[in-house]
Amino acid sequence: MRYEYTLVYQDYLDAQKLYRKHRWRAAATYYVFIWVLPILGLLGSFPLIATFLGYNSYLTRSLAPISGIGLWLALYFPLMRIYSIRKCWKLLLPEHIEKSTKSEIVVALEITPEQLISVIPGKSEGRFFWSGILDFVEDEQLALIFIKKKLFIFIPHRAMDEAGWSELRMRFNSSRTAA
Predict the structure, then answer these.
(1) Residues of the chain above pLDDT 70, percent
(2) How far apart are CA 146 and CA 19, in angstroms?
């Protein structure tokens, strides 16, 4: 069966969240670099902030360079995360579409007995045998089909009717039992 659907930036963000739920190392890395290090950096930057606010003592002046590093940590990782997520989304977009987070991607998905075919017109076509698909994860919003350990196709639930989802699950499960 062949299905066509549209992906939006929010689908991509939801796919990243589901990936973090499924892979504990990805979640641990996310929380360390996006939450823990910036909070520690912000705490470490208090002497520098105190110096700027007029509290001028030997201790705050001597800790100012280290505090600058803390302030850098507090800003760099969260801002780079936002930048890299947006950049990865824009790399998914076909050449003829404006590179923006407001852009939409039209995707064609075909489920055959032998393989899963995913097509982004003007960008890519992937043909994946069922035995080569590593994992299948879904929640109430979308599903992830893992092609490699850190590479997946994301499909929102609005993309297919229940018969399509049943066939997709059946094909994946039958390839697991045959292997």
Answers:
(1) 99
(2) 10
